[in-house]
Amino acid sequence: MRVSQASISQQVGVSRTAVSHVLNGREHMVSEETRQRIMEVVEASGYHRNAIVRALKTSRSHVIGIVVAEAALSRFADLIHHVERAARLKGFQCFLRQTKGEAEALERSFAMLREYRVDGLLLLASGLSAKGGRKLPGRGFPFVSIDPLGEEGKGAWVGCDHFQAGWLAARHLLEQGHRRILFLGGPDERLGHRLKGYRRALAQAGIAEEEALVRAEGVFTFAEGRAAAERLLERPGDWTAVMTSSDFVAAGLIQRFSEAGYRIPRDFAVIGCGDFGLSIMATPALTTIDLRLAEVGAAALEMLMAQIEGREAHPAPRMIEPQLRVRESTAPVPDAGRRTGGMRGFTASARAT
After folding, report:
1. Residue 41 and residue 303: Cα distance in Å, rounded?
2. Exposed, middle or buried: residue 328 (CB in 10 Å: 0-12, 13-18, 19+)?
3. What is the pLDDT along the chain (353 residues), one digit of tens a residue?
4. Phi, psi dihedrals of residue 213, rounded to the nearest 5°
5. Residues 6+ positions from 107 with CB-CB distance below 8 Å
6. Which residues, other chains included, contact 44 with Cβ-Cβ below 8 Å and sequence gap of 6+?
7. 69 with 80: CB under 8 angstroms?
8. How far apart, in Å, are the Cα atoms of 153 and each of 133, 145, 189?
9. Which residues are CB-contacts of 351 (< 8 A; sequence separation ≥ 6)?
10. Which 8-state DSSP code applies to residue 333?
11. How far is CA 208 from the centre of its chain?
12. Alpha-carbon distance 134 to 140, whole Å?
């Protein structure tokens, strides 16, 4: 049986006009609850709209372009999933484009997507310089990035507070008695903010930073985590905990160290970052910093939709606060209190001076 707008209106219990509003880009004409009910029935029924006809009527393609750096695809997989699902409920489809991440490659990706008349663009590629960011869309075209472009932090973007993420991770380890904490990060701008958070937590605990405990190696993946562990095995140190750049790196570290006979967290603690799906599947389950990517994705999509629908031409940036998720890969240092005398001058705020 052919599904029609009339049959959808009967199933939902609303007027056919309300269904037409939702299916033809006039969502603001109905309540959010009604729109969601209509879209749920549309998806369940398999109703097919003529996208070309609708685009001609509304001057919209109802397609959002998503550009993601290849190196960041694994980290953003959950976020992309949440964005696509939320977009479908709003009657939009997503067009995913992978890129190497260089400014010129991003320009080409954006140009291609605009040729397909996407209604807006979402960029998932961190570490782009401010100079490169100035070459990207923004001149009256709906555009949102995950994390700011460059240090200036201007434009429409949604991101996690990476300073707070670094501070939360370091504070957790300090509270467990760890004093020699290895920071395994990289030259990425987000990790730079996490390093500042790490340093703030150490300062608040009255602990001097040791340059040898900061490794800017640019590790992000599972394989890079294993490789980093290999380097650490070749040059052992007396640190008791490791802060990593992602859950993937933490899982790679733990696997390689386990192969070498170490037991986590008995021999040393490991904390990840991201709270991706593998964090609870790793052995041991990862203590990590939840970057709340579902909330980041939802906020970014809403910011983009506000521009597409003309509700807000220049939205203000938005920062999402991370959360600590304590699991099995971290544990107190044995007899830490007797050896160190406890923590000194530790405060309950990352921003405290």
Report:
1. 26
2. middle
3. 567 788 888 888 999 888 887 877 677 788 888 888 888 888 787 776 654 445 445 566 789 999 887 767 777 888 888 899 888 888 888 988 887 766 667 777 777 887 778 899 998 865 554 444 555 555 568 999 888 876 556 678 999 999 999 999 999 999 999 999 999 986 666 778 899 999 999 999 999 999 889 987 777 889 999 999 999 999 878 899 999 989 999 999 999 999 999 999 999 999 999 998 888 888 999 999 999 988 999 999 999 999 998 888 888 899 999 999 999 999 998 764 433 333 333 344 555 54
4. -95, 5
5. 135, 136
6. none
7. no
8. 10, 11, 12
9. none
10. P
11. 31
12. 13
Token pair in block for residue 38: 């209509």
Domains contained in the chain, CATH given: 5-50 (1.10.260.40), 60-155+293-320 (3.40.50.2300), 162-287+326-340 (3.40.50.2300)
Q: What gap in Å lies between CA 252 and CA 327, rounded to an integer? A: 17
Q: β-strands 157-160, 143-146: how paired?
A: parallel
Q: What letter represents residue 99's amino acid?
A: T
Residue with tokens 């990352």: 350
Strands 323-325 and 288-290: antiparallel
- What single-letter DSSP state applies at residue 243? E
